[in-house]
């Protein structure tokens, strides 16, 4: 698994306000969207393209366009929804599939409660969106679904990641024979005893949408 930490002062600046507990939901949603657009630039560096002939007002030339099949963007509900708009703004022709997952806060095991993905993902590049990679259980389960359905190139985009979760995800995806890339805004210090990222930003879903 390739891990890319997007090292940019604007990303660090926006993450700081996202982390601040005084930041309200509307501001949090706007910052998450802005951050994804910056991360998406990095995450799509190897998006598949093909040559395409056009004519400028001056001369014929060869450009590029996104290859078919189009990339699939998969936000992990709930919190991943807060990253969807920022991503599809950069990739407007992408298709979108949904996975609903939640962590059992006692066992920290991921549970899937919704799954709306194309059956056949053969040859598809997939971009999985989830703001938080904590223990790695949620992303590991999501990426395995995609690999089982035939995805052959997967990039996970997170705002924050824990070192423990990156290690666990690497171990889970080892031997999958599918290129996996993680693009993240920052790698934080550690996980606490409740599985929260430290310093982190708290519960991303609650901060985006309120406590359920
Ligand atoms: O790496 P893990 O330890 O699996 O934890 C990360 C998951 O936890 C959060 O979701 P949560 O279960 O809180 O659901 P929500 O998005 O509905 O709030 C977060 O958005 C990730 O999906
Ligand atoms: O710190 C964390 C860990 C898991 N899920 C979150 O939303 N935040
Ligand atoms: Mg949550």
UniProtKB/TrEMBL annotation:
Keywords for this protein: Allosteric enzyme, Glycosyltransferase, GTP-binding, Magnesium, Nucleotide-binding, Transferase
- The protein here is known as Uracil phosphoribosyltransferase
The pathway that the record names for this protein is: Pyrimidine metabolism; UMP biosynthesis via salvage pathway; UMP from uracil: step 1/1
Instruction: List, alphabetically, the HAMAP family matched.
Output: Upp_B
Q: Which GO terms describe its biological process?
A: UMP salvage; uracil salvage
Cellular component GO terms, alphabetical: cytoplasm
Gene that produces this protein: upp
Native source organism of the sequence: Leekyejoonella antrihumi
Q: Which cofactor does it need?
A: Mg(2+)
């Amino acid at each position: 698994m390739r891990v890319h930490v997007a090292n940019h002062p604007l990303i660090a600046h926006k993450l700081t306000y996202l982390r601040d507990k005084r930041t309200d939901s509307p501001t949090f949603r706007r910052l998450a969207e802005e951050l994804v657009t910056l991360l998406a630039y990095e995450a799509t560096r190897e998006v598949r393209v093909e040559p395409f002939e056009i004519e400028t007002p001056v001369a014929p030339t060869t450009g590029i366009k996104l290859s078919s099949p189009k990339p699939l963007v998969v936000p992990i509900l709930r919190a991943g929804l807060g990253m969807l708009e920022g991503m599809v703004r950069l990739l407007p022709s992408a298709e979108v599939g949904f996975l609903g997952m939640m962590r059992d806060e006692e066992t920290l095991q991921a549970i899937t409660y919704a799954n709306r993905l194309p059956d056949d993902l053969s040859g598809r590049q997939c971009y999985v969106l989830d703001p938080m990679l904590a223990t790695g259980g949620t992303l590991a389960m999501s990426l395995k679904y995609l690999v089982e359905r035939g995805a052959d190139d997967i990039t996970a985009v997170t705002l924050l990641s824990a070192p423990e979760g990156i290690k666990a995800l690497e171990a889970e995806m080892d031997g999958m024979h599918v290129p996996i890339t993680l693009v993240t805004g920052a790698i934080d210090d550690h996980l606490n005893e409740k599985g929260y990222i430290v310093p982190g930003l708290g519960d991303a879903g609650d901060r985006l949408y309120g406590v359920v």
